[in-house]
Amino acid sequence: QVQLVESGGGLVQPGGSLRLSCAASGFTFSSYYMSWVRQAPGKGLEWVSDMAGDGGRTNYVDFVKGRFTISRDNAKSTLYLQINSLKPEDTALYYCARDLTGWGEYDYWGKGTLVTVSA
After folding, report:
1. Cβ proximity of 51 and 108 under 8 Å
2. Residues whose CB is less than 8 angstroms from the CB of residue 56 and which lie 6 or more positions away in sequence, other chains included
3. Closest Cα partner for 29 from 54, 57, 9, 1?
4. Are 58 and 81 in contact, with CB atoms under 8 Å apart?
């Protein structure tokens, strides 16, 4: 059974940092692109970043470049998102998702971890 479990969210002041984790199980983690997708309060889903199964290719939405870093540890079946220089507009529920093709065809999602950026 495929499971994705996010953790690492919390309340942080503007300018702060967080490291989100997504623990995967039930499938061969290294064989899949994995993505981070977020949903701000009252808004739709927004793709943030993805990474190829072997870690050889990464992509980011323009407005997080230089602040967010995606990584993965295939030995631990875990995906990470390091978020620096947090802004109030980064407040959102952050989901990890398994991507079948690397083109946003998500078949499994975690339940999300909440990041709140506030003074």
Report:
1. no
2. none
3. 54
4. no
* DSSP H or E stretch at residue 37: strand 33-39
Distance separating alpha carbons of residues 62 and 38, to the nearest angstrom: 14
- Give CA separation, 6 vs 20, 106, 116, in Å: 7, 16, 15
Give the residue from 110, 108, 83, 105 showing the smallest Cα distance to 22.
110
**Is the separation of the CB atoms in 9 and 20 below 8 Å?**
yes
Q: What single letter denotes the amino acid at residue 99?
A: D
Strands 113-117, 10-12: parallel, antiparallel or unpaired by DSSP? parallel
From first to last of its 119 residues, the chain has per-residue pLDDT tens of 999 999 999 999 999 999 999 999 999 999 999 999 999 999 999 999 999 999 889 999 998 888 999 999 999 999 999 999 999 999 999 999 999 988 889 999 999 999 999 99
Phi, psi of 57 (to 5 degrees): -140, 130
Q: What is the chain's Cα-based Rg? A: 13
- List all residues 6 or more positions away from 42 whose beta carbon is below 8 Å from its beta carbon: none
